[in-house]
Design brief:
Layout lengths: L16 E3 L5 E3 L3 H19 L6 H22 L8 H15 L15 H26 L5 H22 L11 H11 L1
Antiparallel strand pairs: 1-2
Helix pairs in contact: 1-2, 1-4, 3-5, 4-5
């Protein structure tokens, strides 16, 4: 492979534009650049999450996610191009089914808390939702393939499920929201 990134500081972006993969230049505040940036931020946060202790299967899923997010970023950087395949969405669906089947049903909302790894997974989940919103906004302005939107939607769901898995890794549990309804139900149970 050739040296693709031989010069990092090109100064071509000093005027507030950036180059896309098709050699066009766009404003750094364009919808496309926002979507690319949110996907990049998500990938970086998953990299931080991968620094934590976790089951090998979860680690393998997240490493594959990083590769697919790089594909997604590449697709977003080249208008009309397709790098993220529907098979990538199917792999997320499989992981969702596998890991969600191991968890108890939720009776109430949970807080984005618990172990450090679980909390980082929640941060990744919220960045995934932001990236999804950016892709949806871009899709309204310019037609995109379906896979990017589907992938980010499934990924945020998977990150929620993985946060629950990571909270249970060492005997922990979810951190439940103390809603008024749950307080009343507990009081009714005691009466």
């Amino acid at each position: 492979m050739a040296n693709r990134l031989s010069q990092i500081a090109t100064r071509t972006g000093d005027n507030g534009t950036t180059g896309l993969g098709d050699n066009t230049r766009v404003s750094k505040d364009s919808l496309r650049v926002h979507a690319m940036g949110d996907v990049d931020e998500l990938n970086s946060n998953i990299g931080v999450l991968l620094c934590e202790d976790m089951p090998g299967g979860v680690r393998a899923v997240l490493i594959e996610v990083q590769h697919q997010l790089f594909n997604l970023g590449g697709e977003l950087s080249i208008p009309g191009f397709e790098l993220l395949k529907p098979e990538a969405v199917a792999l997320l669906d499989e992981a969702l089914e596998t890991y969600n089947a191991q968890l108890p049903r939720l009776a109430e909302f949970i807080l984005p808390a618990g172990s450090r790894a679980a909390s980082l997974a929640h941060v990744c989940r919220t960045v995934a939702r932001r990236a999804e919103r950016a892709v949806v906004a871009l899709d309204k302005a310019e037609t995109l393939k379906e896979a990017p939107r589907l992938y980010l939607n499934r990924l945020s769901d998977l990150l929620f499920v993985l946060s629950r898995v990571l909270n249970r890794m060492n005997g922990g549990d979810d951190v439940y929201w103390k809603s008024e309804r749950m307080v009343r139900m507990a009081q009714d149970d005691q009466a």
